[in-house]
Automatic annotation (TrEMBL):
The protein, known as: COASY synthase
Keyword Metal-binding among record annotations: no
Keyword Phosphoprotein: no
Source lineage: Eukaryota, Metazoa, Chordata, Craniata, Vertebrata
Name of one Pfam family that matches: CoaE
Entry keywords, A to Z: ATP-binding, Nucleotide-binding
Gene that encodes it: Coasy
GO molecular function: ATP binding; dephospho-CoA kinase activity; pantetheine-phosphate adenylyltransferase activity
C-alpha cells in the first residue's frame, strides 16, 4: 500500500544509508539492523528488548507488539513516544511530516539512472513509453509533454484501428474467431471477442499474436512520420515519446 512503492530503494541500500547516519550521529552507539518480514519483527521474540520507540501515529503498533509479547510469555516493552518533525517544504498533496512517501513523490520526473548506451539505435527520434493502470496519470503526463512540444501517439486508438474493416488485423481476427464476433454493420464486436478470449490464455495469446505486431507497425510508422516532421512525440495508453 506504499505510495510509489516502485521507487522504494532496495533493503541493502537503505541499511547502508542507516549505518552511515548512525555513524555520523553517534559513532559509539551499538545497533543491530534487522530486515522485517512481518509487522512485528524481533520485537515480539527478543527477551532482551526493554523499550520500543513510537510516534503518536504508530503507538497502536507498539501496543500490538506488547500484546504479542505477552502472548509469547515476554514482558511488555516501555513505549517511548517521540514527536514527528514537520516538513516546512511539504506540498499541497504531501504529508505535513517528513515522509519517505513525499520524498518519492518528488522523484517523479527526475532521471533515476543515466540512459543506457545503445549504439545500434539512431539518436532520434527519442522514444519514451508511458504505461500504467487506469488512473495512474498517463493522460496527464502525455498532455504536459504535448504542451512542451511532444508529438502524441495514442496506442489505444491504434489498437482500435487495427480491428476496423479494412484494418491490418481485421481479416485474421475474423478467420481465427469466427463470424459470430461481428456486429450487424460488419465491425468486430469487441465485447463478444473479449468474452471469447479473456480467461482463456490460449485464445488470448492467439489474439495478441495477431493484434500486437500490427499495433507496433502502426506505432513505428507514426514515429517515422513524427521524425520526418522534426517533431517530438509521446504515445499514451501503452505509450511512446519521440523527440
Amino acid at each position: 500500500d506504499k505510495v510509489l512503492k516502485e521507487l522504494i530503494e532496495p533493503y541493502e541500500l537503505r541499511a547502508a544509508k542507516l549505518r552511515e547516519f548512525l555513524a555520523d550521529v553517534q559513532p559509539r552507539v551499538l545497533y543491530d539492523i534487522v530486515p522485517l518480514g512481518d509487522p512485528y519483527g524481533p520485537a515480539v521474540t527478543d527477551p532482551e528488548l526493554r523499550c520500543i520507540v513510537v510516534s503518536e501515529e504508530t503507538r497502536k503498533g507498539g501496543e500490538a507488539v506488547n500484546k504479542k509479547r505477552l502472548e509469547n510469555g515476554l514482558a511488555a516493552l516501555e513505549l517511548f513516544e517521540i514527536q514527528l518533525i514537520k516538513d516546512p517544504e511539504h506540498g499541497r498533496n504531501e504529508e505535513e511530516k517528513i515522509s519517505s512517501s513525499s520524498l518519492r513523490q518528488r522523484l517523479l520526473g527526475t532521471l533515476l539512472r543515466p540512459p543506457r548506451e545503445a549504439p545500434t539505435l539512431p539518436p532520434r527520434p527519442y522514444v519514451i513509453g508511458l504505461t500504467g493502470g487506469t488512473g495512474s496519470g498517463k493522460t496527464s503526463i502525455a498532455r504536459l509533454l504535448g504542451q512542451l512540444g511532444a508529438f502524441l501517439i495514442d496506442a489505444d486508438k491504434l489498437g482500435h484501428a487495427v480491428y476496423l474493416p479494412g484494418g491490418p488485423a481485421y481479416e485474421r481476427v475474423l478467420a481465427a474467431f469466427g463470424a459470430e464476433i461481428l456486429s450487424e454493420d460488419g465491425t468486430i464486436n469487441r465485447k463478444v471477442l473479449g468474452a471469447k478470449v479473456f480467461g482463456n490464455q490460449e485464445r488470448l495469446k492467439s489474439l495478441t499474436d495477431i493484434v500486437w505486431p500490427e499495433i507496433a507497425r502502426l506505432v513505428r510508422k507514426e514515429i517515422g512520420e513524427a521524425d520526418a516532421q522534426g517533431n517530438r512525440g509521446v504515445q499514451t495508453g501503452r505509450s511512446l515519446l519521440c523527440r
